[in-house]
Specification:
- By secondary structure, this protein is of the alpha/beta class.
- The protein has eleven helices and 14 strands.
- The chain has a seven-stranded mixed β-sheet. Strands 7-8-9-10-11-12-13 form a seven-stranded mixed β-sheet, with helices on one face.
- It starts with a strand and ends with a strand.
- About 40% of the residues are buried.
- Bound molecules: zinc ion (2 copies).
- One zinc ion (ZN) binds next to α4.
- One zinc ion (ZN) binds next to loops.
């Protein structure tokens, strides 16, 4: 399967501000030397050698992941503002009768706010299945898509075939993938998802404030968290901030490294980025997370920042 990231911010959308763009340009210009602009090849080499926080951005859209299984329909996790970008990008990829299966971790704004802009739900030839362990998913989703919050309602205008499913414990098979879920520690309740296909394991755990019980080697924890090829984890804060923001429902990147180590994840993707952290700060956290993994002696763990547009192959 392939996992594509359409939104990795937590809490609220965070577009780059003009002064941030100016400061990136200014920092790049200061690095240019005469030899970097002799030929187009020199220019490309120079640009390619720039640090990722200068020549890119993690993006500002809130949570949305697309999982493309080897066979079968498209799976999405959450409908934050990133789903609007996914929708705009579908173009030729949209099959004549495209089927989407959207699994919600929970219904906080940053995980549903893009749904009114999800074009395929308005397309009579598309079908969209919505899943949540919470009851009343249809009423919950349609309640924020009505006057005075939005000009049209789900019932009136979403002309695709919509199906609402409450998850009641059993795993779900979507094409060649199986989807399992478990509750995570988050205010108002939230769920993580484990998707397996052809021996590959993807675990999505966001939003979550990790607690001691998540590290216990119980059969239920092992069956859900252990041995993932890729783990996308809520690591919104530094450790200091996580302590200050106890009970806010999010984890620190350092605890995330401990958690990935405890459950033998191969790759850890830091996710649900704090809106107040700019690209430079997030990349600094990434370096610290990598340093910490080394100090723990976990030399096998690869750590990355989740970035908009990133594709994870499993
Ligand atoms: Zn969130
Ligand atoms: Zn939340």
């Amino acid at each position: 399967m392939t996992v594509r990231i359409w939104g990795a911010r937590g809490s609220r959308p965070t577009p780059l501000r003009a002064e941030q763009v100016r400061s990136k340009i200014s920092a790049v210009v200061q690095r240019i030397q005469q030899r970097d602009i002799v030929s187009p090849a020199d220019r490309e080499r120079f640009l390619g050698a720039l640090p990722a926080w200068l020549f890119g951005t993690v993006g500002g859209n809130t949570a949305c992941l697309e999982i493309i299984p080897r066979q079968g329909p498209t799976i999405l996790i959450d409908a934050g503002s990133g789903i609007a970008e996914l929708s705009a990008s579908m173009g030729q990829r949209l099959k004549p009768t495209h089927e989407f299966h959207i699994f919600f971790t929970h219904f906080h704004y940053d995980h549903v706010q893009g749904l009114p802009f999800f074009g395929p739900a308005y397309n009579p030839r598309c079908s969209v299945h919505f899943y949540s362990p919470l009851p009343g998913i249809q009423a919950t989703l349609s309640s924020h898509m009505q006057h005075p919050f939005f000009p049209v309602t789900m019932e009136e205008k979403m002309g695709g075939s919509l199906f609402f499913h409450q998850l009641k414990g059993q795993e779900v098979t979507i094409g060649s993938a199986t989807v399992r879920y478990r509750e995570l520690n988050h205010p108002g309740r939230g769920w993580g998802y484990r998707i397996e296909e052809a021996g590959s394991v993807f675990v999505h755990a966001s939003d979550v404030e990790l607690q001691e019980s998540d590290f216990e080697k119980t059969a239920a924890n092992s069956a859900f968290f252990a041995n993932s090829d890729a783990l996308i984890l809520d690591t919104q804060y530094t450790l200091g901030e996580a302590i200050e923001k106890y009970n806010w429902g999010h984890s620190s990147f350092s605890l995330g490294v401990d958690f990935a180590t405890a459950w033998s994840a191969k790759r850890l993707y830091l996710f649900h980025h704090e809106p107040l952290y700019d690209d430079a700060k997030l990349h600094k956290n990434l370096q610290l997370a990598r340093w910490y993994a080394q100090r723990l002696g976990n030399l096998d763990l690869e750590v990355y920042l989740s970035e908009e547009g990133m594709e994870i192959s499993l």
